[in-house]
Design goal:
- The complex is a heterodimer of chains A (about 325) and B (about 260).
- Chain A contains 14 helices and 11 strands.
- Chain A is an alpha/beta fold and about 325 residues long.
- In chain A, the strands form 2 sheets. A 6-stranded mixed sheet of chain A has the order 2-1-3-10-4-11, sandwiched between helices. A 5-stranded mixed sheet of chain A has the order 7-6-8-5-9, sandwiched between helices.
- In chain A, helix 2 crosses helix 10 and helix 5 packs across helix 13.
- Chain A is globular, with a radius of gyration of 20 Å.
- In chain A, about 50% of the residues are buried.
- Chain B is mainly alpha-helical and about 260 residues long.
- The chains are: A alpha/beta (about 325), B mainly alpha (about 260).
- At the A-B interface, helix 1, helix 4, helix 5, strand 7 and helix 7 of A face helix 1, helix 5 and helix 9 of B.
Chain lengths: ~325, ~260
């Protein structure tokens, strides 16, 4: 009985410890291995956080969901995640705000070169691999509708959890197309078996892809720390845009796969770009799109997802 | 009387856990996004059940568990018996079994897609590989654990090799095998999550993964409660079978106690 009581008390204490405000120094930042997370890799390896007077540690985390969960628990204070993940988390009550962009574009539809699919209308009756409720899914549905296809009737959507599994399924003919991202798509083209049917920037030029989010308590209690993060982020984005060859080398260093030449090709302006600028309207547009697709429970307010003040302060200071 | 007391104690612990679960997020001690109150999870469970979604997901998972685990049982029990009875054969198989046993079910996902495509087949395969080797090594151990004196006595009394296996080894190993089958079934439910990561759009694992992507912790917990309840139900059925098949043990235990 005493042991049972002990376990119960310990469980209560452990649970109660979750989600409490954490000390700010060193600031914990969570990112994934992805092309458009490169500003964080650059800021980390070039010491840009120290340069702006901030002690920060960048963690590579395997999935977007895990980044949000770590932010919610307080293990991380800042993170980079797809815009759709950020909107869904905030919609479900996570105390987070989008504070900057980190990448635009980069997602599209990949088919096999020998599939005979040369236009979007050829997709009728085909199986398309996607990750449910992800940015790849949201933009795929939008693109299908834009080309006059009903996603629930004209195609068969096959849900996966990982980008690599979708590539394997496409390569081996288990599916006819996959909604995917860079550098996987350029890699498939270079290997000779893949063909990019189109990028989603055709439907929404320069669409937001990954964003920077911060915990609400950090924004309220330590806005100066958020500004320091963004100062380093702006410097890193500028560095990334100025030298694509260097940027590709850094991505390869962190992804530990692909070759720099391939990654540099996948960074071409018509495919994707890293960026820090952010507008409330584009986030609201994405949220509205997700609401129409049934991924949000209530119609979103334009201002509920973003906090642009720190970025505006940083950009004002630069002038 | 003793059974009643055990059930009462189990009920007290469960009720205590539910009270904690409900009150911690309500008192603000735990973030309700990380752990929604029990009442909200129960509400979500009821709405999923009323919409018919829960039944569809549960039936899909149950079918995969029964297929994958059924295949694993059909393969592992006879093979385990053979390897348990033949030491040279077991020595041949030992290295391969030890090499493959530590591989977790998600590690098989890329191969499952390549070999079985998409749909139910790779999911069933993942449940199969996730349970087969545990069942195999458990069966070998159960057969090896049979008292050699029983086997020798049967042989001395003129029982054939086949008769010894059927009439002595199988009944003697049966208690351990039935416990192994019950444990294996729990393992099969644990594999569902990994199995339903692969190109399926129905199933409790899929429901929970999708809910996690959408930060619907209430749905994740509702899915977990459903998996737990189904596991409990199937385990109860297996216990009934176990009780029937091992009725003879009651007499044996009484005899052993009278000797003590």
């Amino acid at each position: 009985m005493a042991r049972t009581l002990g376990i119960l008390i310990l469980s209560v204490l452990l649970l109660a410890a979750c989600g409490r405000a954490q000390p700010v120094a060193p600031l914990q930042i969570g990112v994934r291995t992805a092309n458009d997370h490169v500003p964080f890799y650059i800021a980390d390896r070039e010491g840009l956080y120290r340069q702006v007077g901030l002690e920060a540690k960048v963690h590579l985390i395997p999935s977007n969901t895990e980044i949000v969960e770590a932010l919610q628990r307080g293990d991380l204070q800042v993170g980079a995640i797809p815009v759709t993940t950020a909107i869904t988390a905030i919609d479900h009550g996570a105390d987070l705000r989008i504070i900057a962009m980190t990448g635009r574009g980069s997602d599209g539809l990949l088919v096999r070169r020998d599939s005979g699919i040369t236009s979007w209308t050829d997709l009728k009756g085909k199986r398309i691999a996607t990750i449910r409720a992800s940015i790849l899914d949201v933009l795929l549905l939008q693109a299908l509708e834009a080309h006059g296809l009903d996603p629930s009737r004209d195609v068969s959507l096959v849900y996966f959890q990982k980008l690599g599994d979708m590539i394997s399924a496409l390569k081996t003919g288990q599916v006819d197309a996959t909604s995917n991202t860079e550098p996987f798509m350029t890699d498939a083209v270079r290997q000779g078996w893949g063909q990019i049917l189109g990028y989603y920037t055709e439907q929404w030029p320069d669409h937001p892809c990954c964003v920077v989010v911060a915990r609400g308590d950090l924004l309220r209690e330590h806005p100066e720390t958020v500004e320091q993060v963004l100062k380093a982020h702006v410097l890193a984005v500028e560095r990334a845009c100025a030298d694509p060859a260097y940027t590709a080398r850094v991505i390869v260093e962190y992804l530990q796969s692909f070759d720099p030449e391939l990654v540099e090709a996948s960074l071409a302006p018509e495919k994707m770009r890293v960026d820090y600028h952010l507008t409330q309207e584009e986030i609201a547009r994405m949220a509205e799109l997700m609401y129409r697709q049934g991924l949000l429970e209530h119609r979103p307010e334009e201002t509920e997802f973003t906090d642009l003040r720190p970025l505006e302060q940083v950009l004002e200071g630069q002038k | 009387m003793r059974l009643r007391l055990a059930r009462w104690r189990g009920g007290v612990l469960l009720a205590g856990l539910l009270v904690c679960w409900e009150s911690l997020p309500r008192l603000g001690w735990v973030d309700p996004i990380l752990l929604p109150p029990f009442s909200r999870v129960a509400g979500r469970l009821i709405s999923l059940a009323l919409s018919g979604d829960l039944v569809q997901h549960a039936v899909a998972s149950l079918g995969r568990v029964l297929a994958g685990y059924g295949l694993a049982l059909a393969a592992a029990l006879p093979l385990g018996f053979f390897l348990g009875l033949s030491e040279p054969a077991e020595q041949y198989a030992r290295l391969a079994v030890q090499l493959l046993r530590p591989l977790s079910p998600p590690a098989w996902i890329p191969l499952a897609i390549l070999w079985f495509g998409i749909g139910n087949a790779p999911a069933i395969f993942i449940i199969f590989v996730g349970t087969f080797l545990t069942l195999l090594t458990g069966t070998i151990a159960a057969v090896r654990g049979v008292d050699r004196r029983l086997v020798q006595a049967a042989r001395t009394l003129g029982c054939s090799r086949r008769g010894t296996v059927v009439r002595v080894v199988l009944p003697a190993a049966l208690p351990e095998l039935l416990t192994l089958i019950r444990l294996g079934l729990g393992l099969a439910w644990m594999c569902v999550m990994a199995a339903e990561m692969v190109a399926v759009s129905r199933g409790l694992g899929f429901l929970m993964l999708e809910a996690r992507n959408l930060f619907r912790t209430d749905t994740v917990l509702a899915g977990m409660l459903t998996v737990g309840s189904l596991g409990l139900l199937l385990d109860g059925l297996l216990r009934l079978v176990q009780g029937r098949l091992l009725r003879w043990q009651v007499g044996r235990k009484a005899y052993e106690m009278s000797r003590d």
